[in-house]
């Protein structure tokens, strides 16, 4: 997959959804994240290694929402009508240079305002998990400032000790996978 760095990701369309996750329209990413925020489809990926550690990323400083916070392996928005798992596989390649088969394990809805940028996340989030071992071969610096493999128990402790270091949706992602055994 070739990454086109000239794409304005804020102009790409997202799928608006109702409170049951049914598609009801579309608008650009920037409009969906303008206060008060519009409920739209998103995905969040967690990759685990063979030992059970999870790959986290620190969002790049140039991100328009929650820059420099630590979060799940990868996240994004499927184009209207596109399968979230297919979009997530492509996004993993774009952001990290990783290919992994993904399985959806659940969804959740959240709303969070970023006090630093004034943008709002209001998302119907599909949570997907997969396996990967090793270091990401090509992290995109426009997306990712850093990455780390962490033990889920250490992550839970760190999020309690210093919640401001993490994106507001990460706790919801972890809540969805809490009762799912990753193969």
From TrEMBL:
What are the BP-aspect GO terms? Answer: dimethylallyl diphosphate biosynthetic process; isopentenyl diphosphate biosynthetic process
Q: Which GO terms describe its cellular component?
A: cytoplasm
What residues make up the catalytic site? 75, 123
What does the entry comment about cofactor binding?
A: Binds 1 Mg(2+) ion per subunit. The magnesium ion binds only when substrate is bound.
GO molecular function term, any single one: metal ion binding
Which EC class heads this enzyme's classification?
isomerase
**Where along the chain is Mn(2+) bound?**
33, 40, 77, 121, 123
Quote the record's binding site residues for Mg(2+).
Answer: 95
Q: Does the keyword Manganese apply?
A: yes
Q: Per its Swiss-Prot or TrEMBL entry, what cofactor is needed?
A: Mg(2+); Mn(2+)
Domain Nudix hydrolase residue range list: 38-172
The record lists the catalysed reaction(s) as: isopentenyl diphosphate = dimethylallyl diphosphate
Q: Supply the alphabetized keyword list.
A: Cytoplasm, Isomerase, Isoprene biosynthesis, Magnesium, Manganese, Metal-binding
Pathway of this protein? Answer: Isoprenoid biosynthesis; dimethylallyl diphosphate biosynthesis; dimethylallyl diphosphate from isopentenyl diphosphate: step 1/1
Where does this protein reside within or beyond the cell? Cytoplasm
Looking up Gene3D superfamilies in the UniProt record yields: Nucleoside Triphosphate Pyrophosphohydrolase
Q: Which CDD domains match?
A: NUDIX_IPP_Isomerase (cd02885)
Q: What is its EC number?
A: 5.3.3.2
Q: Which family does it belong to?
A: Belongs to the IPP isomerase type 1 family.
UniProt xrefs under HAMAP family: Idi
Q: What task does this protein carry out?
A: Catalyzes the 1,3-allylic rearrangement of the homoallylic substrate isopentenyl (IPP) to its highly electrophilic allylic isomer, dimethylallyl diphosphate (DMAPP).
- What is the protein's given name? Isopentenyl-diphosphate Delta-isomerase
Source organism (scientific name): Nocardia wallacei
